[in-house]
Amino acid sequence: MIPNSLGHVLTPSAVSLDEKQNVIVGLAARERQVTHPELTATAFKRYMGTQRKVRLGQVTFTPEELSAVVLRSLKADAEAFLREPVTEAVITVPAYFNDKQRKATRQAGQLAGLKVDRLINEPTAAALAYGIAERGRETRFLVFDLGGGTFDVSILEIFEGVLEVRASSGDNRLGGEDFNEILVARMRARFGEALGLKLERVDALTQKIRDLAERAKRALSTEPQATLALTWQGHREEMTVTVDEYESWAEPLVARLREPVLRALQDGRLRVDEMDEVILVGGATRMPLVRRAVTRMFGRFPSSAIDPDEAVARGAAIQAGLKARDAALDEIVLTDVCPYSLGICVAESLPNGGVRDGLFAPILERNTTVPASREQVFSTMVDNQPYIEVRVYQGESRFVSENIHLGSVDIQVPPKPAGQVAISCRFSYDINGLLEVDVLVPETGERRELVIADADVVSSDDFAERRARLAALKVHPRDEQANLAVLARAARCFESLLGDERAAVAGWMHQFEAVLAGQDPRAIEHHRNELTEALDRLEGQVVL
Amino acid sequence: MTPEEVWAELGLAATADTRSVRRAYAQRLKVTHPEDDPEAFKRLRSAYEAAMAWAEHGPKAAEAVQGESEPRPPSASEAASSPETSPETSPEAEARDPFEEHWAACRALIDRARSGGASDADLTAALDAILKSPVLDHLEVFQHTGVGLARALLELSPKADVLVWPVLDHFGWRRAGQLGWASLPEVDALRELGRTVTDRAEVRDTRAYQLLTSPPPRKESRDTRFDRDAVRRLLRRATTTDGWLEPEFSPESVKWWKRHLDPRLARRRRLMVWLSAIAGVVALVVLASTPDSPFPDVPIGELTNEQLAMKADAEPHDANTWARLCRMTAEGWWRESSLNDCDHAVSLNPGNAEVLLDNGFLNIKVGKGLAARRRFDQVLVDHPEHAVALYGRALAHSLRNELDEGRADWCRAVRLNPQVKMDVELTWDFKVDGAFEPC
Fold first, then answer.
1. Which of 165-194 (B) contact A at CB < 8 A?
2. Is residue B81 situated within a structural domain?
3. Contact, A415 vs A62, CB < 8 A?
4. Angle at A211 between CA A206 and CA A212, to 5 degrees
5. Are residue B242 and residue B176 in the same domain, yes or no?
6. With 90 as the cut, is the pLDDT of residue A426 above it?
7. How many whole angstroms separate alpha carbon A341 and alpha carbon A364?
8. What is the pLDDT of residue B228?
9. Whether residues B226 and B196 fall in one domain
10. CA dihedral A140, A145, A150, A152 (to 10 degrees)
11. Best mutation site among B12, B363, B401, B427 for testing chain A: the one with the most A CBs within 10 Å?
């Protein structure tokens, strides 16, 4: 694993601008979330593929652009380590990312100057990291991936050098952040009154509460209780939470972990006792309550053979090796599945002469091994219907209104009585999880190809312009990044402390700034380490 | 793909040995890499799936795979037996006591429900205790318990119907339409039973049901057309699809209503009123105004649909006939010009809410959201709190995919009249799935 400029192998997805419009990425940016919320963006991954814009000071970014900024910084880290240019990348995405989100991710890579060789599903990547060591055996295992914002379950099988994903399922609205939100909600209820504030209105305060919740959640993994102490404009409020209380609050979330597992088992036509191993992936699986729930569900202890935070990255690296046909990985072939059903909107006639519209007709069923193509024939509903509108959806509900709309295409059909004109829809799902829809009227030979998310695709001029704009953003030199991160952290501590501790942090910051002005690299490094240690003593080690 | 092509693709003679099929697939996969040649991979994969299906389930299933619609997977829970017949299927059952206890509690619950001695509250409490058991955390126990209970409730119905919804809720089966764990055959059947249970409860809540179960009114009540239609429908429902209703009605009340709804008696009654109130001359005038009618002296209510249509065509300006025709159409009788007929009925009966509603629901039935919405809007201009019109407009919105507006109307309608859904179903004879629930 290649470390970043701070020496860490994990870089938080956070982007911030400083007063001179310089871009700050990673840990330093995340520290600024509390002190400069209006100049900082985090958690933009969940907005990928939407039209939502994020405003940092004077500058507006799309989620792809923010991701591109992070990717560019990772690229720089890799280039500094390898001492050669990096031009291609394998990027992991949650298995439940839809077509729009995948395309946006790919675009982010291109904006960062990377050719995106492959998008790989995160649980599949994690499984690859585990499976590569087990390739000699014939085995079946389940990957339980609870990340920050999404929950993915995959069942894999290894035989004869084939690593096959049997089934994937998940809940894209369940993740570690939901376990923080429990505490956030309780704090709002408790402190809101005391502070006389509408807590949700104040950005900086919201961030601070989120930060406190995250720390308390981690503390509760090892301690019997945790104290949430909020300091705001000179007031200090406290509440104590015990492990038992917290776990009873979290029970509804834990119950939601069960359904996706059942669905994956059912789709893979497998029983619980047919799993040789259960692998935990994703930071949120470090929580004891999640590990306990998994143990109870499967009646066995989950494996800790791989590091839950690094498994996905290792898997991506292995995928890159497979792609490049690395000799060390010879004889392994990976096959993945399409994790959700894809189909179109249809109407049906009812026996009483009525019509029911808005029904979902799946064409490519979920958990089909990809690449795959499926074709189905549909016919007109009305006499002399001039055209047919093919609306493409993704999801598992029988009603399209509950599924995700991916795009539409109109195709002209010859005027004929209802039911006498047929069109055939062909869905092709490729190895990167991108969908192609081909509609054909056999009678006339008329053919339409659906480009999903037509409106979102930017012209190449526009693309070049956006790329140039991103390239023009100034970045702090690499050797200053560590100083920046520790200063941002100290500023955050300063804001959340009172009295002597606060004065002490202020003193350390002044001292360090003076050393920085001296420009002696060895003195700077020495003082930086001292400041880090002092802050560690004050609030515990930094969490990535 | 023919069977010959399948085996040729794998380079294998037909075999039921899954190991050799997998080995052949794996070997071919190394040279038919999905990265390099997606089309070749797709062929190989279909051959592999067909061969595996053949090896596992025999030649029939293999044919189904070739049709590209996979056979329904035999689910884990189907393969395993349900708890009440053989609790030992759980791996831990023998070794650990709590599991034994759990299955014993399940059996006890089912036995009590079967004997019929326990009250609804007792059964609910016993089920609660079972669902709170920690052993239910084990997925296999969860699956077997859920499926076992589903089978038992289906078999026992209506003895343990009170448990249907709690079970559907606990096992995450409430939402219909989702594929997967919630689409096992037992679960579909149980959800159907749940709907029946709810339907019955809803029917029991309607005014028509109350009218038919309470003693008959002493004198001619000033009932509305709405009541009459609803009672008529419910009576029809009792003799056709819902036999369970009949024993719950009061026989005297049914008799009274049948007499009351009889069109000939209604006519006699109206005639009495006419005669006593105004002179017979008025009646003559009424008859005289329709001299060309093919059915001059037959009341509308007695005409068959076809006769009614003929009468309407002969009397293009008779508002009542056209209103009636529109109602019949909206209830499900159809002729080529039905949509136009109903529009004509509206123009003859300007501002008549009943006709507008008939027209609106007819448009809903044929999937014309915009036209339907216009009709309901017209009703709502004069009657802003009309639950049925609001409900209809919600359906119109939902046809047009305007879900937010639809939900708002739906919720308002249900607030104004919790039985609105059932009323609409009884009057216009069509069922709507709870598209916007809960509010």
1. 172, 176-181
2. no
3. no
4. 100
5. no
6. yes
7. 6
8. 77
9. no
10. 0
11. B401
Rounded distance between C-alpha atoms, residue B236 and residue A298, angstroms: 53
Name the residue in chain A with its Cα closest to that of B363: A354
Q: Does B73 touch chain A (CB under 8 A)?
A: yes
Same domain, B242 and B169: no
Cβ contacts of B366 on chain A, cutoff 8 Å: 353-355
Residue B295 lies in a domain: no
Read off the pLDDT of residues A70-102 as tens digits, 9 standing for 90 and up: 999 999 999 999 999 999 999 999 887 887 888
Q: Specify the fold of A176-252.
A: Actin; Chain A, domain 4 (3.90.640)
- Overall fold of domain A119-174+256-337: Nucleotidyltransferase; domain 5 (3.30.420)
Report if residue B33 sits inside a domain: yes
Which residues of chain B make contact with A357, given a CB cutoff of 8 A? 367, 399
| B 247-306 residues inside an 8 A Cβ radius of A | none
> Looking at the partner chain, which of B26, B30, B332 has a beta carbon nearest the beta carbon of A159?
B26
- As for the ipTM of the complex, it is 0.80
- Of A453, A463, A460, the C-alpha closest to A50 is A453
The confidence score (pLDDT) of residue A201 equals 60
Alpha helices in B59-206 (DSSP H): 59-66, 76-79, 97-115, 120-132, 139-156, 164-170, 185-205
- pLDDT per residue as tens digits for the range A278-290: 999 988 998 999 9
**What's the CATH number where B427 sits?**
1.25.40.10
Residue B97: domain span = 91-204
Choose among B74, B77, B185: nearest CA to B141: B77
**B144 and B165 co-located in one domain:** yes
**Does the structural domain A340-453 have CATH classification 2.60.34.10?**
yes
- A265 CB neighbours in chain B (<8 A) are 76, 139
- pLDDT tens track for A135-189: 778 899 999 999 888 899 999 999 988 999 999 988 878 999 899 999 998 988 8
- Residue B179 with chain A: CB contacts under 8 Å: 341, 366, 396
Closest CB to A297 among B91, B137, B172 = B137
From A484, A505, A488, A536, select the one nearest A35 (Cα to Cα): A488
CA of B140 to nearest chain A CA: how many angstroms apart?
6
The answer to whether the Cβ–Cβ distance between A258 and B68 falls below 8 Å is no
Distance between CA atoms of A388 and A381, rounded to whole angstroms?
Answer: 9
Nearest to B172 among A259, A271, A355 (CB): A259
B98 and B177 belong to one structural domain: yes
- Domain count along chain B: 4
Same domain assignment for residues B252 and B187: no
**DSSP-assigned letters across all residues of B208-273:** HHHHHHSPPPSS-----HHHHHHHHHHHHHHHTT-GGGGGGS-HHHHHHHHHHH-HHHHHHHHHHH
Tokens found for residue A456? 């979102």
Q: Which of B261, B285, B302 is the last residue of a domain?
A: B261
Q: Which residues of A touch B70 (CB under 8 A)?
A: 365
Q: B96 at the A interface (CB within 8 A)?
A: no
Query: Is residue B225 predicted with pLDDT exceeding 70?
Result: no
Task: List the single residue in B140, B332, B403 with the smallest CB-CB distance to A401.
Answer: B403
Question: Domain ends where: B158, B188, B204?
Answer: B204
- Tokens, residue A285: 């699986």
The secondary structure of A49-109 as a DSSP string is TS---EEETTEEE-HHHHHHHHHHHHHHHHHHHHTS---EEEEEE-TT--HHHHHHHHHHH
Nearest CA among B424, B328, B341 for reference residue B376: B424
